[in-house]
Amino acid sequence: MASIFTKIIQGEIPCYKIAEDDYHFAFLDINPVSEGHTLVVPKQEVDYLFNLEDDTLKSLIIFAKKVAKAIDASLDTIRTGVVVEGLEVPHAHIHLVPIHYEGQHVGLGKKAEVSKERMIELAERISEAFKK
Ligand code: AMP
């Protein structure tokens, strides 16, 4: 059965889309730990990040870098942190967690309250910056 992320990539499940290319897809995490928390996913469905082929992993991290730069350019960040866990969704992904203030916890614990309207706005802002 297709993973929930494959269903998002294929448009069967809605998301706050940021960007995609032939091999990668980026969208806002529905339960963000900070505003702009983004997931970067290879379109190829492999569970464990470190089971990806070298070239796939390499291109995924380069795509994630571009998304992180777009987050930094469009939101009020100090920088963007990276978390990889993968215990909930068996489809490899990188969490990009915008760091908005000194001492912010970057792990996947406490969730931030972000309204639907704000999620739409955040996705649009990051997406626009990604295209530049
Ligand atoms: P993990 O597999 O532990 O790295 O976490 C999976 C992440 O996917 C969690 O942070 C979830 O909030 C996120 N997530 C699960 N379903 C969706 C969805 N439909 N849209 C966006 N993010 C999701």
Describe this entry's structure for a reader.
- The protein has helices at 4-9, 54-74, 116-131, and strands spanning 17-20, 24-28, 38-42, 79-83, 94-99.
- It is of the alpha+beta class and 132 residues long.
- The chain has a single domain, classed as HIT-like (HIT family, subunit A, 2-Layer Sandwich).
- Strand 1 (17-20) and strand 2 form a beta hairpin.
- Helix 2 packs across helix 3.
- The longest helix is centred in the middle third of the chain and has 21 residues, at 54-74.
- The protein is globular.
- The protein starts with a helix and ends with a helix.
- Bound molecules: adenosine monophosphate.
- The site of adenosine monophosphate has 12 residues, from loops.
